[in-house]
């Protein structure tokens, strides 16, 4: 299965990153969002990131100049997926939203098209419920920033076909990712471990064990993590991690994932991390 045309649904941070690496790999990419303003902003951000890559010697000017014409933005979903080989959704982490989007893709995309969901924790099988072909649905969990992070977590449900997995592993290699394959289990491999660590770190701040900075330093210098769990929570979004934690606490019947009161308070006050300018750290 050759995945030459990619439709990315959702022009937020993750969507534009997926579009970026897909276009750079030589594919035709259509980036969709219901807001044309959001699409235009995402395309401008991708161009800026490619320029920075050239300045830092990470991307050649020739590669940048070849990638940009392959990338277009659309505000009509049917136009984005009409002849797509691979459709990747990068919309908010809500099951019903993703299922509704898949139903629209079923109606408008070719029967051959693979549907990849960028969920970080939701069940692939549940997202695929109601689809005409649940075998073409697969989890493609990217990490932020997509054009820098090397991991692609591929999640297969009991319905996902072997040829769909093989095509997605080939796509992952083409966009420069190291692929791991994980069964469809709540939290997969990355979110299950990362969120559990993050929740405990927040509880430690709440209990006055140490400052956020010192807890992060302990994990960076003591365990060689590239970034501490609290700064990572700021980057991902405190609200996003809270919702994942609530979901995993129920699905795994494990209180370790329950969001601490401090986390709930921060979300209520709008201290969501980098995107709001304030979380456990202050962001300019």
The helix content, as a percent range, equals 40-55%
What is the ordering of alpha helices and beta strands? EHEHHEHEHEHEEHEHHHHH
Unreliable sequence segments = none
**Using only CA atoms, what is the Rg?**
19 Å
- How does CATH name the architecture of the largest domain? 3-Layer(aba) Sandwich
Placed side by side, the strands forming the largest sheet appear as: 3-2-1-4-5-6-7-8
**Domain module tally:** 2
Main beta sheet strand tally, sense and closure: 8 strands, mixed
Short summary:
The chain contains twelve helices and eight strands.
Q: Can you tell me about this structure?
A:
With 284 residues, this protein is α/β, with parallel strands linked by helices. It folds into two domains: 5-183, 3-Layer(aba) Sandwich (Rossmann fold); 191-275, Orthogonal Bundle (N-(1-d-carboxylethyl)-l-norvaline Dehydrogenase, domain 2). It has twelve helices and eight strands. Strands 3-2-1-4-5-6-7-8 form an eight-stranded mixed β-sheet, with helices on both faces. 43% of the residues are buried.
List the helices and strands and how they pair.
Elements: E1 5-9, H1 13-24, E2 28-32, H2 36-55, H3 61-67, E3 71-74, H4 77-81, E4 86-89, H5 95-108, E5 114-117, H6 124-128, E6 137-141, E7 151-156, H7 162-174, E8 178-183, H8 190-206, H9 212-223, H10 229-236, H11 238-251, H12 261-268
Parallel strand pairs: 1-2, 1-4, 2-3, 4-5, 5-6, 7-8
Antiparallel strand pairs: 6-7
């Amino acid at each position: 299965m050759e995945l030459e045309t990619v439709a990315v649904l959702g022009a937020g941070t993750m969507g534009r990153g997926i579009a970026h690496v897909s276009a750079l790999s030589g594919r035709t990419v259509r980036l969709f969002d219901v807001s044309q303003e959001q699409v235009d902003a995402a395309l401008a951000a991708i161009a800026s990131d490619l320029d920075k890559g050239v300045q830092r010697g990470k991307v050649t000017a020739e590669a940048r100049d070849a990638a940009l014409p392959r990338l277009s933005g659309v505000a009509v979903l049917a136009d984005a997926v009409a002849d797509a080989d691979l459709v990747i959704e990068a919309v908010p982490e809500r099951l019903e939203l993703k299922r509704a989007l898949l139903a629209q893709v079923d109606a408008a995309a070719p029967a051959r098209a693979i549907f990849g969901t960028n969920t970080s924790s939701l069940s692939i099988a549940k997202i695929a419920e109601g689809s005409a072909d649940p075998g073409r649905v697969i989890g493609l969990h990217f990490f932020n920033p997509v054009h820098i992070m090397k991991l692609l977590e591929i999640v297969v449900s009991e319905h996902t076909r072997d040829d769909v997995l093989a095509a997605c592993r080939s796509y992952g290699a083409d966009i420069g990712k190291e692929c791991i394959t994980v069964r469809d289990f709540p939290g997969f491999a990355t979110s299950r471990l990362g969120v559990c660590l993050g929740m405990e770190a927040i509880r430690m701040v709440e209990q006055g064990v140490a400052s956020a900075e010192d807890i992060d330093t302990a994990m960076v210098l003591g365990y060689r993590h590239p970034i501490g769990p609290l700064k990572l929570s700021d980057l991902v979004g405190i609200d996003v991690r809270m919702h994942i934690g609530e979901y995993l606490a129920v699905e795994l019947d494990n209180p370790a994932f329950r969001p601490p009161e401090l986390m709930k308070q921060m979300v209520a006050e709008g201290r969501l991390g980098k995107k709001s300018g304030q979380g456990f750290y202050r962001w300019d």
